[in-house]
Amino acid sequence: MAPNKKSQDQAEASTSSAPNEDAEPVNKNKRFRKEKPWDTDDVNHWEIPKITREDHPLPFAEESSFATLFPKYREKYLKEVWGPVTRALEKHGIACTLDLVEGSMTVRTTRKTFDPYILFKARDLIKLLSRSVPFPQAVRVLQDDVTSDVIKIGGLVRNKERFVKRRQRIIGPNGSTLKAIELLTGCYVLVQGNTVSAMGGYKGLKEVRRIIVDCMKNIHPIYHIKELMIKRELAKDPKLANESWDRFLPKFKKRNVKSKKPSAEAGATENANTIPLGNGTSSKPALTAEQEGEKKEKDKKKKKVYTPFPPPQQPSKIDLQIESGEYFLKPREKKERIEAEREKRQESKQREREKEREKSFIAPKEDDGEGQLSKKAKKRKEKESGPDGDAEDKKKDKKKRKREDKE
User: Fold this and answer.
1) Within 13 Å, how many C-alpha atoms sit on residue 67's CB side?
2) With bands split at pLDDT 50, 70 and 90, how would you rate the model's confidence at 298?
3) Which domains are delineated in the chain?
4) Where are stretches of biased composition, namely Basic residues (predicted)?
5) Could you read off the pLDDT of 260-292 as tens digits, one per residue?
6) How far is Cα 166 from Cα 212, in angstroms, rounded to an integer?
7) 147-203: per-residue pLDDT in tens?
């Protein structure tokens, strides 16, 4: 009986281990996952629950606080608005103080505070107020479905002029680009100084940050605006809810137009219009086959000899100072050496200037009698020495012979 029982157990094990063809394929990551009682479709896990005073009837054990500084130009506005700010925070059991001497705003919990997260919301409120966000907009951050993000753009671009130009791109002509970003993301956006303040939902804030950071990296916001407009239209179609939208979205290629260096042919044809037209023959003599071959060899780039070793390290400024001994000099001695070098340069320049001044006092060289000749005599001499001088002599000889024959 024992061996039969053993064989039966083995058969049962084999049947249990064999995969069930009718069963649905299970994801590898969820093989050992047990069903939870709260994993039902009627429960919305993304819903933010509202916390009331009944949830936390007792006060917090410790007091917590946050403080932030504000610029001097915001002092006047904050003094006017601080009454409504205090009343808005008192509803949630948060106390706030405005220190005009130190230039800071502080928020802290009290014994009436019942929401543990409201202190972080109050911190965001004073941050937005310090970044020039008006109070009617900033107070919305106390709502559960509204969050804020302060994007620092000051360190993304080195050049000041380039930074101002790219920051202006975010705003656009008459604020049109900023308005488009606000409408498509559902967020409030304010550009102020070296920061961009944004308020809205988490999804919208993520898009706003991407647009602004890319704009400071020289990617125009219009590309992201086009993409968001297409996504908004695709979201209306329920058939495309479970499909990839990559085929509908535009793919922009980065175009960096590199400046071309002038080639030899371009240089030859550059001043072609200045050459006078002739009988079609060039003034330059034609090169022989040997000369052309030599020219081609010169034009070819010389190939560098391959070496497996890296190039030798160049001496640094400190190395050169150690070699010359300047590194070990005292500051006073260094100063004296610099002054001595400067005086040397000044002396050499002074000598050059004196030589140039002395040139004006040197008498010009006199001509050997030619300088005293009149202009007419010079012209006659030039004519006689010219190519037609021999022809004139022959004419004179003929005239003399004719006179002699007549006589």
Assistant:
1) 8
2) low
3) 48-143 (3.30.1370.10), 146-251 (3.30.1370.10)
4) 396-407
5) 555 544 444 445 454 444 444 444 555 666 677
6) 10
7) 999 999 999 999 999 999 999 999 999 999 999 999 999 999 999 999 999 999 999
Residue type, 301: K
* pLDDT for the residue 14: 47
pTM: 0.54
Structure tokens at 103: 């230039």
Question: What's the pLDDT tens digit per position in 240-267?
Answer: 888 888 888 888 777 766 665 555 444 4
Assign residue 193 a region (left: φ > 0; alpha: ψ between -120 and 50; beta: otherwise). left
